[in-house]
Amino acid sequence: MQSKIAEAIGMGYSPVALIWTDERPEGAVQFKKGARGCVVATLVAAAKGKKVVFDRETFGCPGGGTGLGFGNQYVYFPGGIEYFLSTGNKEFCRSEAGKNIAAGMPDLEHGERYFKSPEIAAKFVETLPMRDIPAKYIVLKPIEQVEADQKPKVVVFLVKPDQLSALVVLANYGRGANNNVIAPMGAGCHTFGLFPYSEGEKENPRAVIGMFDISARPLVDKNVLSFSVPLGMFEEMESNVEGSFLEKEPWLKVKERNK
To answer: The domain containing residue 47 runs over which residues?
Structure first.
């Protein structure tokens, strides 16, 4: 599978295909069972050529399992996810059950402070479009490695600001409206998993800009954000490359400075 968009905007990374499947691909990198890790790091690895696979026992962290679509893994978060995302849970961290966990997770006591209060954080979690996908595995891999009989659920672009501007324009190019891209707050994996899954179920799906997750930012280049689209919208955008602004001088000048 090739991408006209990737060539037209001069991408440095490969677009990444996110695929639901019941077959584990050969040669794929996978977290060890019970090991902690960030799904965003594996997205970057896939954009650089790796093949990555996840299942319900190997998704790195509760946020990763939730963001990928393996059900609401936040219910298993020690001390409560609403406290971790906001002001922390000192009482839990001083308990016998919490002391050892807190030793390896300092933010459990003081909170990440991404929300003003546990109540507000809980409301955020309640609004997430949770789902438990009907497949055993999720695979991330470069779009060039997608086989003819495979249908990605989502295609993810890791892009610089100039390239992002082109994607935003292209997302609106054939729609007759200017609200076909959203930028929701969420974990990095939410923005290429849950949110585009949800958009893909709509009559007029929207693209999702992401990677605003401060905790995940160190795992991507400082000049990179993600732009994720469900398959139907990806195919729509691909069909609109030829004859568009992407062939005109103003864009070609912008593209040139990103070489």
So the answer is: 4-64+132-256
